[in-house]
């Protein structure tokens, strides 16, 4: 954990000695467009925490587009984590899966003053590719301060600059008040995504001062982070601010539209006792009340901030020249399941409810491929194939159909050894690995995990630098196209397969989505 690491503060006149050679001290005071910031050296990288890219979003700024931060004089200390967005907090009641992936980590504390980012950078050097990570947690939880998102491994392994972002979540980021509060609240249903675009503008204007290249910015994210990346690809305000995209288990095809979003807003307002006549009350209520009352929330297709569905009816022309990496985990949707000991009979009963009249046939297909896989893992794989993997394939198909920038597809089959392997290749198993980091509870730091982190991490580093994931640590990885459908399978034996599990893909394609 970062909090237990040794901090090394170097003054302007200090030197850093490595292998007996005196070198100039790393630049720990950097000038941004709003003022100077001071960082630290940790684990052989420069680290700047909690740099503001926007103003406090409380009070009159609540539900409003992000405003620029106020400039400051002197040097701002950026050695401690910044605030994260208000969200529901889980403690001792957190699930075993949540504890495994470290999702209930709230370092920095909750506040509406949460528009900040973290930067990991090499000790020296310029014009490094920049990798900007958007955290998962859907649109209601998570943060850029999570241990799994720490960028020091990528920096040391590949000499890049890594950025993680905090932004508004939940009801505070995605309540569509345009039909109640009028034009003043017009973009309220997507201000959380406006925050993400604002962070990318800050990166464009400032990353060079940290050694980064504003012309080589990769955005990437897992789960909700992948959804945010999918959405940014169709947002005019983000156009030109990134040059590669990687989506992990977050392929997003369609979003909520105004009619449905306004109904969700009505439910929230009724719970809070707020109506059109006292709409201003929403900006003064404690944020905890809004978080507690929120239901289903997410970005809204409003015709302006988000003018269209991200990948429906096709891939967005706005980002046609931006290459993509698109991936899923084999048993992604096991994250919401706890019936670890389900037997074959229970699996058949569950499947019958999913596909009435076809359970025996479809289970036989899965069993031909995986005759010894535990019923729980078969169940998680079926749920994934039916939804998330289906979306990922559709996203790749529509990106490939543009015949412009390439899409590279992968499937993460390597099961985490944690908890005696009961989770399989569950949701998030590839997250820290894409950060070239095997030293997490998911990776366990084992030699095999280090090999897997090397493979996926090197692919991401190559993609960030040149827009192509191919490198010496993995087999040749061609772009996804029809009819070849090349998919890189990351497992103990990492390999390329063409249209893997074709019969299963075709089965789910025939069912209504």
The CATH topology of the largest domain corresponds to Rossmann fold
What is the average of the pLDDT values? 93
Number of strands: 18
Bin the strand percentage: 15-25%
Q: Tell the overall outline.
A: globular
Secondary structural class: alpha/beta
Q: Can you describe this structure?
A:
This protein is α/β, with parallel strands linked by helices. The chain has two domains: about 1-260 and about 295-320, 3-Layer(aba) Sandwich (Rossmann fold), CATH 3.40.50; about 325-425 and about 435-510, Alpha/Beta hydrolase fold, catalytic domain (Rossmann fold, 3-Layer(aba) Sandwich), CATH 3.40.50.1820. It is about 30% helix and about 15% strand. The protein has 15 helices and 18 strands. The protein has helices at about 95-100, 150-160, 170-175, 180, 190-205, 225-230, 260-270, 285-295, 345-355, 360-370, 375-385, 390-400, 430-435, 445-465, 500-510, and strands at about 15-20, 20-25, 30, 35-40, 40, 45-50, 75, 115-120, 130-135, 160-165, 210-220, 245-250, 255, 300, 325-330, 405-410, 485-490, 495-500. It has an eleven-stranded mixed beta sheet, with helices on both faces. The protein has a three-stranded mixed beta sheet with strand order 3-4-7, with no helix packed on it. A two-stranded antiparallel ribbon has the order 1-2. A hairpin with a 2-residue loop joins β5 (about 40) and β6 (about 45-50). α9 (about 345-355) packs parallel to α11 (about 375-385). The chain is globular. The two termini are about 40 Å apart.
